[in-house]
Amino acid sequence: MIKQNLHTHTYYCDGRNSIDEMIQEAIQKGFTVLGFSGHGHCLVDDYSMNEEKTKRYLQDIKEAKEKYKDQIQIFLGLEQDVLGEPAIKGKPYDYLIGSVHFTKGNDRYIAVDESKEMTDRLVEEHHDFLAYAKAYYQEVKKIADMDQIDIVGHVDLLMKFNETESYLPFEDPAYLAIASDCIDRLIEKGKIFEVNTGAIARGIRTTPYPHASLLKYICKQNGKILLNSDCHQKELLDCHYHEALEMIRSCGFTKMEVLTEHGFVSVSLDRFM
């Protein structure tokens, strides 16, 4: 049986725990695969890893791979923002997550996931939510041409504060057309979409990213997925995993991706716990 998380943050960026603490928690919770994905350096945030923290992050994971090799498979990854410094897979990373955390307002980049107030500002500066969605998904679409990126992080992050559909319905046809156009491009380039339970862990959403309407579309278009918790706190490493797996099945998927020493492979959902 397989239990995997490849979206894990530590105190080297905006997580609460050390690498060692995360691994020990993962072993206790029955994980078989754990990947670390510290935020790669990005000039428009204040939480990503600088050069010194990156060096320590790389060294700690190298040591952890050896220390825990008989208990759990550890992988070294990075979450690279579209606005961040480009990383290269294999030098030394095993995999890379590509994410969009910022969209340009009138004259500056604004975080899309910081607060509802910041989302309100982005909507106001773009004049309406659909215009904001177009700008956001244009940024996400850039990941398609980033050959080093394996996984698309929280593809519909702009919907973080739309739990009550106060901005627009999740299944609004105009919105779905914008998102689907981006998803098509990402699938064409072979990107893997994560089902991300991070907003549930933070008490903001009751369902994962992406919303079921988009997840069904990804399935229909033969897109690839995997399940991640976007963990910032060890106790929530497998937050909502059981429910997320049920959602994945209900959207039509029969397989998910697993990272191995030889790269990503598709594995039957029946093998996941």
Q: Main β-sheet, in a few words?
A: 7 strands, parallel
Strand-residue proportion: 15-25%
Sheet/helix structural class:
alpha/beta
Terminal residue distance: 6 Å
Nearest-integer average pLDDT? 97
As a percent range, the share of helical residues equals 25-40%
Unreliable spans: none
Q: Give the strand order of the largest sheet, numbering strands 1, 2, ... along the chain.
A: 1-2-3-4-7-8-9
**Number of strand segments:** 11
Q: Helix and strand succession?
A: EHEHEEEEHHEHEHHEHEE
**Radius of gyration, CA atoms, in whole angstroms:** 18 Å
Helix count, per DSSP? Answer: 8
Categorize the overall geometry: globular
Report on the structure:
With 273 residues, this protein is an alpha/beta fold. It is 33% helix and 19% strand. It has helices at residues 19-28, 51-67, 116-126, 129-141, 173-188, 198-201, 212-220, 241-250, and strands at 4-5, 33-39, 73-81, 95-99, 102-104, 109-111, 151-152, 192-196, 224-228, 255-260, 263-268. The strands form three sheets. It has a seven-stranded parallel sheet with strand order 1-2-3-4-7-8-9. α3 packs across α4 and α4 (129-141) packs parallel to α5. It starts with a strand and ends in a 5-residue tail after the last strand. The mean pLDDT is 97.
